[in-house]
User: Fold DNA primase from Pseudoduganella buxea.
Amino acid sequence: MIPQSFISDLLNRVDIVDVVGRYVQLKKAGANFQGLCPFHNEKSPSFTVSPTKQFYHCFGCGAHGTSIGFLIEYSGMGFVDAVKDLAQNVGMVVPEQDDKIPPAQRAQMQAQSMALSEAMNLAAEYYKTQLRQAPNAIAYLKGRGLTGEVAARFALGYAPEGWDNLRSVFPAYDAVALVEAGLVIDKVDEEGRHIKRYDRFRERIMFPIRNTKGQVIAFGGRIMEQGEPKYLNSPETPLFSKGSELYGLFEARQAIRDAGYVLVTEGYMDVVALAQMGFAQAVATLGTACTTVHVQKLLRQTDTVIFSFDGDKAGRRAARRALEACLPHVSDDKTIKFLFLPAEHDPDSYIREFGAEGFEQQISDAMPLSQFLLREAAGEHDLDEPEGRARAQFDAKPLLQAMTPSALRLQIVRGLASMTQSTPGEIEQLFELSKPVAASRKAPPRGKREGAVGLEQKIIRVLVTHPSLAQLMDEDALAACGQFGPEQAEHLRQLVQQAQALGPNGTFAALAQQLKELGPDYDGIIGEIAAAPEPEIDTERLWLAATVRQLKLEQVKVEINIVMDAITAAVSAKQPADVLMAGYRELKALEGQLLREQEADKSYR
Assistant:
């Protein structure tokens, strides 16, 4: 777990204008910067980046956040990856609790990673240059209907014939980094002795594979004539893991947001051809089955994922594996569908024969996950026979057990129950599903904390806007906030603790990021603060100091009344009241002090 102190320090060091400016064209607009929102379509800029708040906010769609939040939303990175990316740019090393790697070894690993990245970049540039000099490769791409514009967008290249062409790019052709990057192969004899080294990719159209930061991490090479393998991929390397990466995701990010869904295909050429025909929201797995990591990456980009498979047996098997990868991540606010083309077609061939409208109709008619799951369970079983219905339930059991409890799972359970002449409760009990819904009464929804109003809301707004002012909230002030109610007081106490933990230099961005990780309770007020002009901290400090003083004064008056009642009762009962009188005098002295302070700054009230 990354310490919160590191997150705060990181946000203090990075400049959100630089971070966002790498992806969005920004122009100065008064104290802030403006640009077209990358999260929704717009023609006039409503996306604002505040260098003082270190926060972005869109007045159109309401998107807002810190530098970390921007990378997560825009690039689809996970939280840890976003933090590491920002830290690397400012020369910070992310501390990890379980990190037992010695500093020297970690430095060596980072140097190796940089060497591999540099090798991949040089190779990508070389292949691009070679494509411009290869009439046969250009003719092949044109024959597939691709324009130079699309080829440039995906940085397509060509690996010419010959065994050691990369020698012209890398004078140190025997460098270890070339093998580790998967660019060359070392041939050894039966006794393990090195014989020769040669280029991995030869006479192939080259498809650079980029990570979410746009860095080339691997290649896919397609042969132009007959031969095997038709596609040759980079091996697993320190930079590249097939089960974690998706071809075209970097290029497709904006198109995915514009379309509202991502289309997952099975090949590089499908992605490029679909982009050529107006479906730039397509990505592809890299010669491997869809994994849960793939699904997580996709669902960070969009709420709707549509898998496209060939209609043959291999396509059906691939679809089944994709279904199994999706089930742990299914939720009621996500949509997952499966598109099956005729057996003789892939997306590339289908769109060329039936056009963009025909392919759009196929997408529209894609099968929902629930329907596909039930169809997989039914299989070839005879549902008119008890044995067939039992086998369908047997096949469905591991699929439903992989799903988290949700309304969609309940709907699938009901569908299976109807199909197999059972009840939903029987299915849930038989399958031992976690947190069954149909078999037991639903728990009442958890009560939500009532929203803060009036003075409490104003104090919260001031503390979130300027966390450094939380230093004014001492224990007496927090006790005085008890008049808002016990739950409200505890909620305010937790906020003050979060803000005070940031220290006297705490910032809005650091606290907003911290609060976002705790849940959605503060999303509304953070959005309001991000959208509003930043108030002067000195004015807010005077207001908060005066408000805290007033709260303390009201609390002291309540305590004075309580002590007075106790003194009256003691006198009536002819009991000693010395201790009570001493307490009364202390409270009156404190009241006098607060009144004098209040009088001194009443002009600010």
